[in-house]
Specification:
The complex is a heterodimer of chains A (421) and B (75). Chain A has 17 helices and 14 strands. Chain A is an alpha+beta fold and 421 residues long. Classes of the chains: A alpha+beta (421), B alpha+beta (75).
């Protein structure tokens, strides 16, 4: 752990710096050595929260103040917790996030309700809908690059990365362009742990009001967008037809906005810093774009944007790797630590896009596997390719301090000051 | 089609009721698995993926929606 008080969190606006500091930006720069030290103990099952492991207060624990806490650091233990979802339930997340996600959320529900909900919305993130997503992505990327390409330098984290996933989600949800900054502000406050419960709740209510108006409009005149797709969602089981409810649509939106915005833009920032630190690899990538998917996936393994899948509530007394876990405990499945487990990945601390293809826990595992994973991958590949197409000889801006990665619950670069040409 | 016989003698089965559309199987054994319009796994009748790729896909599925057996041999 290294302290870097002068950065005090990252983000262009004060409120962003405040929210990212709460979750460890500028406080913890590299959590991985500590994970490596603790992983061999007790089969990688640790008896505190991740924040306590780094001596920080836990901004996510308000809902579960008195619960005994555990977190996992090994691949096997993390996979076990995520797979055995009936034992390690998302009721933990429900109580923790209902102020931000509302009463009905995909992340906060358990099977069988969760499965019904998931089947309703899954097609909107799959192959059939990919063209709809793509139609917003490429024009936005080009528009952003048009804005700074002639300058020869820009901070790509603030002028590119952070300007596109929120735009894509907002446009597919029918948000007006003029309301984009407001929408991004709400999205930031709704992220788990980023704001006090009352502020997150207020942001959620604003988004719900906003979206009710959009939904009413789309019911009258559907378009080729996510919100039109969602309100038409239905599943058929035998003679039974089940239609999505407005409450479910709003619940999904309030879950999607924070989940899909921060994760994707931070990942892209981490991808760019990682590549600019490795000029030979970056030069190779300009020549051979078939490497882009492997580079993106390896960044997500090696330094992904989130530390852990959120709280699981332990439904019955159980044991993991011989460690007794009492009913009523809260356990955090540590996907970032698991992705560096030497039992699963050879030389795990090396960034190596040429390592043998192997599944990771980057998009979680089990019934709650990230529903937007395919969309996120598509966005990251497209955003990297668009830069390689138009910004030759991309490198760190020599007049700016070199950025670094930081953060605990959410990982991000301090910036991406770049020059090209 | 919810099962498929690979040339190696393996019978591959999928359980769409569990599938979460991670596309893990389709990335590991693209001749054997794909996702359909519902975002659920579907079997292809290609069969040119190596047996090892199919076994890896079975092990990697986040919801254990793929199983393999050898017909005639109790699993």
């Amino acid at each position: 752990m290294t302290a870097s008080t002068e950065t005090g969190g990252v983000g262009r606006h004060d409120w962003e710096r405040k929210t990212t500091s709460r979750t460890g930006a500028g406080v913890v720069d590299d959590p991985y050595p500590r994970f490596a030290e603790l992983r061999p103990i007790n089969g990688g099952v640790h008896d505190s929260s991740f924040f306590a492991m780094f001596g920080m207060g836990d901004p996510t624990s308000e809902a579960w103040k008195d619960a005994q806490r555990f977190c996992t650091l090994s691949y096997a233990a993390t996979e076990h917790v995520l797979r055995e979802n009936n034992l390690f339930t998302n009721a933990g997340i429900r109580r923790m996030t209902q102020h931000a996600f509302g009463p009905v959320s995909l992340m906060g529900s358990d099977d069988p309700e969760h499965r019904q909900f998931r089947l309703l919305v899954q097609p909107a993130f799959g192959k059939k809908a990919m063209g709809m997503w793509q139609s917003w992505v490429k024009p936005r990327l080009d528009e952003l690059i048009d804005g700074f390409v002639a300058k020869g330098r820009a901070d790509l984290y603030f002028e590119y990365c952070s300007q596109f996933p929120v735009f894509v989600i907002a446009m597919t949800l029918g948000v007006a362009r003029d309301d984009l900054d407001q929408f991004q502000h709400w999205a930031g406050l709704m992220q788990i742990g980023a704001a006090p419960a009352a502020e997150a709740r207020a942001a959620r209510l604003e988004v719900e009001d906003y979206m009710r108006a959009v939904i009413a409009e789309r019911r009258r005149a559907p378009r080729d967008d996510l919100i039109s797709l969602l309100i038409e969602s239905e599943i058929t089981e035998g003679d039974q037809r089940q239609r999505i409810t407005e409450e479910q649509v709003l619940g999904l939106v309030c879950n999607l906005v924070p989940a899909g915005v921060g994760t994707t833009f931070r990942s892209l920032g981490i991808v760019l810093v990682t590549l600019m630190q490795r000029p030979e690899l970056l030069a190779r990538l300009y020549e051979d774009r078939s490497l882009v998917p492997a580079v993106v996936d390896e960044v997500l393994r090696w330094n992904g944007p989130v530390l852990t899948s959120p709280f699981r509530l332990v439904a019955e007394d159980t044991e993991i790797a011989g460690v007794k876990i009492p009913k009523g405990s809260i356990i955090e499945p540590g996907i970032a630590a698991a992705n560096r487990d030497p039992a699963q990945f050879e030389n795990p601390d090396a960034f190596d896009p040429f390592r043998p293809v192997k599944p990771t826990l980057s998009f979680s595992y089990g019934p709650h596997f990230c529903v937007g994973g395919q969309v996120a991958r598509m966005e990251l590949r497209a955003a990297l390719n668009a830069l390689l197409d138009r910004l030759p000889n991309l490198r760190f801006d020599p007049d700016e301090p070199e950025p670094q990665l930081t953060g605990l619950l959410y990982r991000m670069p301090t910036g991406v000051p770049a020059a090209w040409g | 089609m919810d099962s498929f016989d690979h040339p190696s003698g393996l019978r591959v089965r999928i359980d769409r009721a569990r599938c979460v559309c991670s596309e893990t199987c389709a990335s590991l054994a693209p001749q054997t698995f794909e996702t359909d319009e519902q975002g659920l796994v579907r079997l292809l009748d290609g069969g040119s993926d190596p047996e090892a790729a199919i076994r890896t896909a079975v092990a990697a599925c986040p919801v254990q929606a793929i199983s393999i057996e050898t017909p005639g041999v109790p699993s």
